Amino acid sequence: MGFDYMKYLREEKMPHIWCPGCGHGIVMKALIRAIDKAGLDQDRVVVVSGIGCVSRMPGYLDFNTLHTTHGRALAFATGVKMADPTLHVIAVMGDGDAVAIGGNHFIHTCRRNIGITTVVANNSIYGMTGGQRSPTTPLGDNTSTTVYGNADPPFDISALAVAAGASYVARTTTYHAQQIERLIVSGFENRGFSLIEVIGPCFVAHGRRNRARYKSNLDMYREEKETAINVTATKGKPQSELMGKVTIGVLHHAPMPEFTDEYQKVIEKATHVRTI
Amino acid sequence: MTEQRETRRIRFIQGNEACAEGALYAGCRFFAGYPITPSSEIAEVLGEKLPRLGGRFIQMEDEIAAMAAVIGASLAGVKSLTATSGPGFSLKQENIGYACITEVPCVIVNVQRGGPSTGLPTGPAQADILQTRWGTHGDHPIIVVTPSTVAEMFTETVRAFNLSEKFRTPVVVLADEIVGHMREKLVVPATGEIEILGRAKPACDPSEYRPYDVSRGDVPPMANFGEGYRFHVTGLSHDATGFPTSDAATVHADQVRMTRKIYGRLEEIEKSEETETGDAEILLVAIGSTARSARSAVRLARERGLRAGLFRPITLWPFPDARVRDLAKKALAVVVPEMNLGQLALEVERVAHCDVPITGVHSAGGEAISPAQILAAVEKAVVR
Known about the structure:
The complex is a heterodimer.
Chain A: H1 24-38, E1 45-49, H2 57-60, E2 64-67, H3 73-83, E3 88-94, H4 95-101, H5 103-112, E4 116-122, E5 125-126, E6 132-133, H6 157-163, E7 168-173, H7 177-189, E8 194-199, H8 217-227, E9 228-230, H9 239-242, E10 246-253, H10 259-275
Parallel strand pairs in A: 1-2, 1-3, 3-4, 4-8, 7-8, 9-10
Antiparallel strand pairs in A: 5-6, 7-10
Helix pairs in contact in A: 1-7, 4-5
Chain B: E1 9-14, H1 15-25, E2 30-33, H2 40-49, E3 56-59, H3 63-75, E4 80-84, H4 86-102, E5 106-114, E6 120-124, H5 129-134, E7 143-145, H6 150-167, E8 170-176, H7 177-181, E9 183-188, E10 232-234, H8 248-263, E11 272-275, E12 282-285, H9 288-303, E13 308-313, E14 315-317, H10 321-330, E15 333-338, H11 344-352, E16 358-362, H12 371-383
Parallel strand pairs in B: 2-3, 2-4, 4-5, 5-8, 7-8, 12-13, 12-15, 15-16
Antiparallel strand pairs in B: 1-9, 5-6, 7-14, 11-13
Helix pairs in contact in B: 1-2, 1-6, 3-4, 9-12, 10-11
């Protein structure tokens, strides 16, 4: 028997809002499969999102789901996790959501290592609002707010997470669909904050404005395939060969104490002090 | 784990500490905040005491995050609090609106200081009166309580939690720097002495649960995350199922219902205190620390043979329209002292319908208003 996706989907909420060719469905499929593979109890999973195209994902998923304000998913998720650390808390965000308006929450949640598995679907554009430049739009690209070419340098989301102290950082693309699932599963296994960045296309709001590179939606997936290099294959390669490449795989894994575990020790200390 | 106490305790403490004690008494077990003068003591006390009771405290990266975390924790079933002052209260407005539209119970303390912007960090003010009502965008109801004493910092925080759970709404405790930092006697009630309310839980099977089912009243029963109900929460306009809708009739009806759930049950929400209002010709209306000066001014005026009386809203929002209208009708003049340039007076004017002259006594420089200043305004009002 094939995989039972309907177990995890709110079928009556279909069709979804995503455009033809969008990568968000690939991310959703991988997330569902990863949750199933990890054997998480459906009633104990909370999926939190912010605002934007991919943030509509929780509405389609049959878990406890929380669609919050723009950029704040991780702050809401932190409250959920603190209130009940036994819940499996997952956050889904876009690039603008995660590292523009939500940038402060993003770096602090990385640093805090609280148990939230975070999937950032990075399509380098504000899709829902009509294709404005995002904090990951490449230099020179045309968007609705950079009609002469983007002069505003982009963030590398994964590098930002590593620098901010995240204990698990992985990256792949929507072309590497099966790898997304594997990386989310290993993100679940990391005790603490895990970031899985998934680079994806937005042909409708981004690709169409940059026809020189993208004749069609397929060119965007082709670019994902051709620019990706697995982190294991980068070893020993000179920097010059890695120019223009996107490193994928588990980029960083450095286990450290999880925040709610550490706070449990605070509770024990405080209770002990009181009984002396 | 709860702190059970068989007997009352008498303490001499600060208003902000009393607020923290009230939160614990009400069953608050989560606090998220960000340091800000003059409310930081609330966070400091809860940072120490929450873990002793098995609760949790977190200092977030900013005020916005603190408000978000409080809503997240409440959705997971834990009574939650944040505390701040003007600049932080401005930042929290985004997610206060989220709590309004999603109907998530939570309590926000605003210990007012001078503004706008950074203003007077250590000076008192009452200039957030209208912001507590209309600070976040869009139509929304909200409940705001205004303590005037250290004892009320305790009891009104307890009441704020009860109201928030009962009505599934954010509730603001609007204090001012004077009430927050002054020290007075507090009689901490024994466990059980004040009734503590929790949210109404769904009785239906999880498969039939609709998070905004108002078929049995305007306040829908609320499940917690993790209990098997698997519901959706969104800041988008939604229908009874909790999922987004842009159907005009549905959204309009829900906005009306959300306002009615508060404004339709005023008798359970309103609370006020009156001093010598029975025969008052000069009506004073004041809140918070200013009401203390106003009460002294009433005594001084009475000693001079002037029939002054004080009406003090303890529930500030919804505004006590009916009672203020009745009292204003009987009065020859109304005096509204407040630490701003005239905000409470706007509400008094609205309900008094210009039937009576209204004078303000203002202080916007971070200084309390003295009884003598209020008395002078009362005497002037009589002459006029």
